[in-house]
TrEMBL record:
Species lineage: Eukaryota, Metazoa, Chordata, Craniata, Vertebrata
Gene: TM7SF2
Keywords: Cholesterol biosynthesis, Cholesterol metabolism, Endoplasmic reticulum, Lipid biosynthesis, Lipid metabolism, Membrane, Oxidoreductase, Steroid biosynthesis, Steroid metabolism, Sterol biosynthesis, Sterol metabolism, Transmembrane, Transmembrane helix
Molecular function as annotated in GO: Delta14-sterol reductase activity
Name of the molecule in the record: Delta(14)-sterol reductase TM7SF2
Reactions it catalyzes: 5alpha-cholest-8,14-dien-3beta-ol + NADPH + H(+) = 5alpha-cholest-8-en-3beta-ol + NADP(+); 4,4-dimethyl-8,14-cholestadien-3beta-ol + NADPH + H(+) = 4,4-dimethyl-5alpha-cholest-8-en-3beta-ol + NADP(+); 4,4-dimethyl-5alpha-cholesta-8,24-dien-3beta-ol + NADP(+) = 4,4-dimethyl-5alpha-cholesta-8,14,24-trien-3beta-ol + NADPH + H(+)
Amino acid sequence: MASPQGSRAPLEFGGPLGAAALMLLLPATMFHLLLVARSGPARLLGPPPYLPGLQVLWSPRMLLLWLTWLGLQAALYLLPARKVAEGQELKDKSRLLYPINGNPIYDFFLGRELNPRVWSFDFKYFCELRPGLIGWVLINLAMLMQEAELRGSPSLAMWLVNGFQLLYVGDALWHEEAVLTTMDITHDGFGFMLAFGDLAWVPFTYSLQAQFLLHHPQPLGLPVASVICLINAVGYYIFRGANSQKNTFRKNPSDPRVADLETIPTATGRQLLVSGWWGMVRHPNYLGDLIMALAWSLPCGVSHLLPYFYLLYFTALLVHREARDEQQCLQKYGLAWHEYCRRVPYRILPYIY
């Protein structure tokens, strides 16, 4: 039976109290990480370093640069010479996304507008990839250039971190169309969570390894560097292979590259892949992502926990996201999803989880 007009999906992230706590905790955590990376001890779990004065924290010039950066990315987004891709089909009763009995704090955090647009400018799609991801690469590059200025040349560890993360961002931009099928685009509204995450959390915390290496240089020999490169290559191979297989199947199940894969039919008319990468674990792309996250941290050595914050945070994020995705797939596919879980019992890590 269809949900009544005033119904609301189960609250996520701890409801209004959890949303309010996260809106305070996330900016504070990001600020703490940036200060710790510059401090001498660089202790992730230690007390906060000395807080700089307001004249250091606030700069009208930096605000102008940030607004200019957003404006430049928006102008590039609107260029007429661009590819236009179709997104996922929306539900017929889209008004169910805007109940009048919502909590303002929770709604502000998650966002109630799924695809906020002004004419052809899609705010969520724009923020999802462009300003934050490209800004992340530019911050990394700034750390590399600053290290070259201070020490004569960038360290091998700095080169590895920049190279690995440039590959990751370049892959995301090259396969930009694939973001249209992600949970962020198809399910989550555009609120504080995605806006802060895309514009602040991603560029400033994902570049933490490069910031750490600038202030805490680490020796790295060629043999160890080669092993780290191999780890990153394995992670990228799994990540790209799984995502490409899924996207190819969604576009054209008859494509020769995926036509022989075993599937499970569903009541919605779609089919679930149960072989290939998606027969190994339910989220092989998450597995590749986590292996790459480990490779990004290893050039920073093992004497500090701080460079491994991204790996720890990203593990928690993907486990939580996987649980949300499981619930959505169960509601959408029903018995077919139960059969898929029986055939593919492991979620992310084979034989473990």
